Amino acid sequence: MMRFFGFVALLFIANLSLAQQATPPGYTATPASVDGIGKRYMGREISGVMGWQGAAWLERDKREREERTDLLLDALALKPGMVVADIGAGTGYLSRRMAPLVVPGGKIIALDLQPEMVNMLQAAVNRSGLKQIEVKQGSVDNIKLPKNSIDMAIMVDVYHELAYPYEVMVSILEALKPRGRLVFVEYKAEDIRVPIKPLHKMSEAQIKREAGVFPLDWERTVSTLPWQHVVVFRKRD
């Protein structure tokens, strides 16, 4: 009988430990910096959002040369038939470049939060004639996609601006198929030569720390882009 109760006690402790590990990280208030929102998550202040008024910067002529989008596309290894969610798609700069790589049979779901940006995104998609791009509007804490519906989710210079990163990540994990990939593309905080404001950069270590809360396995980091690193995770079965 004593052995039985000892086993029950051990089981209770194990379950308690798992429950503690599953507790989501909290948010804390802090005096807002010039570029922040006064809200901290896992050791960093969340940056303010680049508003739709900055849409022209996303389509600047120098972007291909400065950021080498061609190297990013190579790193993604997209294939026909894939369903990819471009989260925080902005004007659809990357969505339009990914779209030809998933045909036949695939599609790009281009999501943004700001209604004004969504309207610009839809107009750009219409002009492109790319029928394999579907435009959607998410919310501040949910990408609003069906469970197990996407092969890949990608956030390009977006994650650091999420006001509710934990909740958004939960919704992404639900939408990803088993073994689906989640890709963070962030300006390198480790490189002071990257001409981007500090709160709009993230280190590889910080990305891994925040992704580590979820059932994700780090797969690889691509550092060949001049300004950004591409950190790829795979959802566990």
Protein architecture, described:
- By secondary structure, this protein is α/β, with parallel strands linked by helices.
- It has one domain: Rossmann fold (3-Layer(aba) Sandwich).
- It is built from eight helices and eleven strands.
- It has helices at 2-22, 55-58, 63-67, 69-76, 93-98, 115-128, 165-175, 204-211; strands at residues 27-29, 36-41, 44-47, 83-87, 107-112, 133-137, 150-156, 176-188, 201-202, 216-222, 228-235.
- It is globular, with a radius of gyration of 19 Å.
- The protein starts with a helix and ends with a strand.
- The model is unreliable at 1-21 (pLDDT under 50).
Q: List the secondary-structure elements in sequence, H or E.
A: HEEEHHHEHEHEEHEEHEE
Runs in which pLDDT lies below 50 for 5 or more consecutive residues are: 1-21
CATH fold naming: Rossmann fold
> How helix-rich are the residues, as a percent range?
25-40%
Nearest-integer average pLDDT: 90
Shape designation? globular
Q: Describe the largest sheet.
A: 8 strands, mixed
How far do the termini sit from each other?
A: 38 Å
- What's the total number of strands? 11
CATH level 1 class label:
Alpha Beta
Query: What is the CATH superfamily classification?
Result: Vaccinia Virus protein VP39
User: Number of folding domains?
Assistant: 1
| Total count of helical runs of at least 4 residues | 8
- The CATH architecture can be named as 3-Layer(aba) Sandwich
Strand content: 25-35%
Radius of gyration: 19 Å
Helix and strand content put the structural class at alpha/beta
